[in-house]
Amino acid sequence: MDFHFFDYWHAPMGVFTFVILIVLINGIFHWLRVRSQQETLREAIKSGVQIDPAALKAVSSSSSSNDSPGGRIFVGLILIAVACALAFFGFQIGRVEGDTEVFTIFQGIAAFPGLIGVVFLISAPFAKRSSKEQD
Question: Transmembrane residues, as ranges (predicted)?
Protein backbone atom coordinates (compact mmCIF):
# COMPACT_ATOMS: atom_id res chain seq x y z
CA MET A 1 0.00 0.00 0.00
CA ASP A 2 1.30 3.41 -0.91
CA PHE A 3 1.38 5.65 2.16
CA HIS A 4 2.46 8.78 0.25
CA PHE A 5 -1.12 10.01 0.38
CA PHE A 6 -0.91 9.94 4.18
CA ASP A 7 2.28 11.86 4.90
CA TYR A 8 1.58 12.39 8.59
CA TRP A 9 -0.62 9.35 9.19
CA HIS A 10 1.87 6.51 8.86
CA ALA A 11 2.55 6.16 12.60
CA PRO A 12 -1.10 6.19 13.78
CA MET A 13 -2.10 3.83 10.98
CA GLY A 14 0.61 1.44 12.12
CA VAL A 15 -0.59 1.51 15.71
CA PHE A 16 -4.23 0.94 14.81
CA THR A 17 -3.28 -1.76 12.31
CA PHE A 18 -1.34 -3.49 15.08
CA VAL A 19 -4.40 -3.42 17.36
CA ILE A 20 -6.60 -4.81 14.58
CA LEU A 21 -4.07 -7.58 13.92
CA ILE A 22 -4.07 -8.55 17.61
CA VAL A 23 -7.86 -8.85 17.60
CA LEU A 24 -7.85 -10.85 14.35
CA ILE A 25 -5.15 -13.23 15.55
CA ASN A 26 -7.03 -13.81 18.80
CA GLY A 27 -10.23 -14.52 16.85
CA ILE A 28 -8.48 -16.93 14.51
CA PHE A 29 -6.95 -18.91 17.38
CA HIS A 30 -10.29 -19.05 19.20
CA TRP A 31 -11.96 -20.31 16.02
CA LEU A 32 -9.23 -22.96 15.56
CA ARG A 33 -9.65 -24.17 19.15
CA VAL A 34 -13.43 -24.49 18.82
CA ARG A 35 -13.07 -26.22 15.46
CA SER A 36 -10.59 -28.69 16.94
CA GLN A 37 -12.99 -29.50 19.80
CA GLN A 38 -15.84 -30.01 17.37
CA GLU A 39 -13.73 -32.29 15.15
CA THR A 40 -12.81 -34.37 18.20
CA LEU A 41 -16.47 -34.73 19.14
CA ARG A 42 -17.40 -35.66 15.56
CA GLU A 43 -14.73 -38.35 15.42
CA ALA A 44 -15.85 -39.73 18.78
CA ILE A 45 -19.47 -39.88 17.61
CA LYS A 46 -18.47 -41.53 14.31
CA SER A 47 -16.45 -44.19 16.12
CA GLY A 48 -19.41 -44.96 18.38
CA VAL A 49 -18.02 -43.67 21.67
CA GLN A 50 -20.69 -42.78 24.18
CA ILE A 51 -20.36 -39.16 25.30
CA ASP A 52 -21.75 -38.46 28.74
CA PRO A 53 -23.51 -35.15 29.43
CA ALA A 54 -20.84 -34.05 31.92
CA ALA A 55 -18.11 -34.29 29.27
CA LEU A 56 -20.28 -32.46 26.76
CA LYS A 57 -20.98 -29.71 29.29
CA ALA A 58 -17.24 -29.40 30.03
CA VAL A 59 -16.45 -29.01 26.33
CA SER A 60 -19.20 -26.45 25.79
CA SER A 61 -18.17 -24.42 28.83
CA SER A 62 -14.51 -24.42 27.78
CA SER A 63 -15.39 -23.22 24.29
CA SER A 64 -17.52 -20.36 25.58
CA SER A 65 -15.93 -17.21 26.91
CA ASN A 66 -14.63 -17.37 30.45
CA ASP A 67 -16.93 -15.02 32.31
CA SER A 68 -15.50 -15.57 35.77
CA PRO A 69 -15.00 -12.65 38.16
CA GLY A 70 -11.27 -13.36 38.29
CA GLY A 71 -11.04 -13.02 34.52
CA ARG A 72 -12.92 -9.74 34.59
CA ILE A 73 -10.68 -8.37 37.34
CA PHE A 74 -7.60 -9.43 35.38
CA VAL A 75 -8.83 -7.78 32.17
CA GLY A 76 -9.85 -4.65 34.07
CA LEU A 77 -6.44 -4.31 35.69
CA ILE A 78 -4.68 -4.80 32.35
CA LEU A 79 -6.81 -2.10 30.72
CA ILE A 80 -6.17 0.32 33.58
CA ALA A 81 -2.43 -0.42 33.30
CA VAL A 82 -2.59 0.31 29.55
CA ALA A 83 -4.35 3.61 30.30
CA CYS A 84 -1.67 4.55 32.84
CA ALA A 85 1.05 3.63 30.35
CA LEU A 86 -0.55 5.80 27.66
CA ALA A 87 -0.84 8.75 30.04
CA PHE A 88 2.77 8.32 31.16
CA PHE A 89 3.87 8.04 27.53
CA GLY A 90 2.08 11.31 26.72
CA PHE A 91 3.65 12.97 29.76
CA GLN A 92 7.13 11.90 28.65
CA ILE A 93 6.62 13.04 25.06
CA GLY A 94 5.24 16.37 26.28
CA ARG A 95 8.24 16.81 28.55
CA VAL A 96 10.73 16.06 25.76
CA GLU A 97 8.96 18.19 23.16
CA GLY A 98 8.09 20.99 25.58
CA ASP A 99 4.45 20.85 24.53
CA THR A 100 1.88 20.58 27.31
CA GLU A 101 -0.96 19.74 24.90
CA VAL A 102 0.50 16.31 24.16
CA PHE A 103 -0.18 15.13 27.70
CA THR A 104 -3.78 16.37 27.46
CA ILE A 105 -4.29 14.50 24.18
CA PHE A 106 -2.85 11.29 25.62
CA GLN A 107 -5.07 11.64 28.69
CA GLY A 108 -8.06 11.61 26.36
CA ILE A 109 -6.73 8.56 24.54
CA ALA A 110 -5.98 6.80 27.83
CA ALA A 111 -9.52 7.44 29.06
CA PHE A 112 -10.91 4.79 26.67
CA PRO A 113 -9.08 1.72 28.02
CA GLY A 114 -9.13 3.15 31.55
CA LEU A 115 -12.88 3.55 31.69
CA ILE A 116 -13.46 0.16 30.08
CA GLY A 117 -11.15 -1.34 32.72
CA VAL A 118 -13.14 0.35 35.49
CA VAL A 119 -16.34 -1.13 34.06
CA PHE A 120 -14.76 -4.59 34.11
CA LEU A 121 -13.71 -4.13 37.74
CA ILE A 122 -17.18 -2.92 38.73
CA SER A 123 -18.91 -5.79 36.89
CA ALA A 124 -16.75 -8.53 38.45
CA PRO A 125 -18.95 -9.01 41.57
CA PHE A 126 -22.04 -9.25 39.37
CA ALA A 127 -20.42 -12.00 37.28
CA LYS A 128 -19.75 -13.90 40.50
CA ARG A 129 -23.41 -13.69 41.49
CA SER A 130 -24.68 -14.79 38.08
CA SER A 131 -22.32 -17.78 37.94
CA LYS A 132 -23.56 -18.92 41.37
CA GLU A 133 -27.18 -18.61 40.20
CA GLN A 134 -26.49 -20.84 37.19
CA ASP A 135 -25.09 -23.73 39.27
Answer: 12-32, 73-93, 105-127
Co-location of 70 and 19 in the same domain: no
* Cα gap 92→95, rounded to integer Å: 5
* Residue 126: domain span: 65-135
Do 133 and 72 lie in a common domain? Answer: yes
Q: What is the pLDDT along the chain (135 residues), one digit of tens a residue?
A: 455 555 555 556 666 777 788 889 988 998 998 899 888 888 888 998 888 888 777 777 665 555 677 788 888 999 999 999 999 999 998 888 888 888 899 999 999 999 999 998 998 888 766 555 555
Let me know the angle formed at the C-alpha of 114 by 109 and 120, rounded to the nearest 5 degrees: 145
The pTM of this model reads 0.56
Domains in the chain: how many in total? 2
**Same domain membership, residue 120 and residue 72:** yes
- Burial pattern 39-69, b for ≥16 Cβ within 10 A else e, equals eebeeeeeeeeeeeeeeeeebeeeeeeeeeb
